[in-house]
Amino acid sequence: RIYVRPVKNETYRPGIENAVYSQLVRMLSSTPGLNPVNNPDDADAEIQGVVVDVKRAVSGEIKASELNPKGVGPNTLLVASEYSASLDCQFVLHLHNKEVWRTEIRRSRPFPANSQIGSLGSTGALINESEFERAVSEVAADMMADVRNSLIQDF
């Protein structure tokens, strides 16, 4: 039985810890032999996660004139065509109040940028933000699979 402590967020991005916590609980719940419990007094072990960093960075560019509608933007201006979402987390497992396992994992995933300009691109920032949140959730899911596999391998 394992108690999953609320994930700490050391970034300036509110709510990112919730995506990591949800994916961690989901992954541990679906693993035979690991039974997440709601009360630390009922647990044999406790796992604590910390979101150390989360970033969005441009990973691809195109000329503004290539955005939809084509030819409207300037040919000399480069704009993002793709971003990369990266997540850096630490996890610690305690067994009987003693640290027995620790890992730091960093993962990233590309996601498309909004490719519209003018009135068609007026919601571009919202679309990019939504895509970023989706990508971070997917990165967190991949990361939690690695955490689970490391736990199973080491124990």
Characterise the protein shown here.
With 155 residues, this protein is of the alpha/beta class. The protein is 29% helix and 38% strand. The chain has two helices and six strands; from the N terminus they run E-E-H-E-E-E-E-H. The chain has helices at 16-29, 124-154, and strands at 2-4, 8-9, 36-37, 45-63, 78-95, 98-112. Strands 1, 2, 3, 4, 5 and 6 form a six-stranded mixed sheet that branches. Strand 5 (78-95) and strand 6 (98-112) form a beta hairpin. Helix 1 packs parallel to helix 2 (124-154). The radius of gyration is 20 Å and the shape is elongated. It starts with a strand and ends with a helix.
Write the layout of secondary structure elements.
Layout: E1 2-4, E2 8-9, H1 16-29, E3 36-37, E4 45-63, E5 78-95, E6 98-112, H2 124-154
Parallel strand pairs: 1-3, 1-4, 2-4
Antiparallel strand pairs: 4-5, 5-6
Unreliable spans: none
Largest sheet: 6 strands, mixed
Distance between the terminal alpha carbons, to the nearest Å?
13 Å
Helix tally? Answer: 2
Tally of strands: 6
Strand residues, percent: 35-45%
Global mean pLDDT? 90
Proportion of helical residues = 25-40%
Q: Structural class of the secondary structure composition? A: alpha/beta
Give the overall shape: elongated
Q: H/E order of the elements?
A: EEHEEEEH
Explain briefly what this protein structure is.
This protein is an alpha/beta fold and 155 residues long. It has helices at 16-29, 124-154; strands at residues 2-4, 8-9, 36-37, 45-63, 78-95, 98-112.
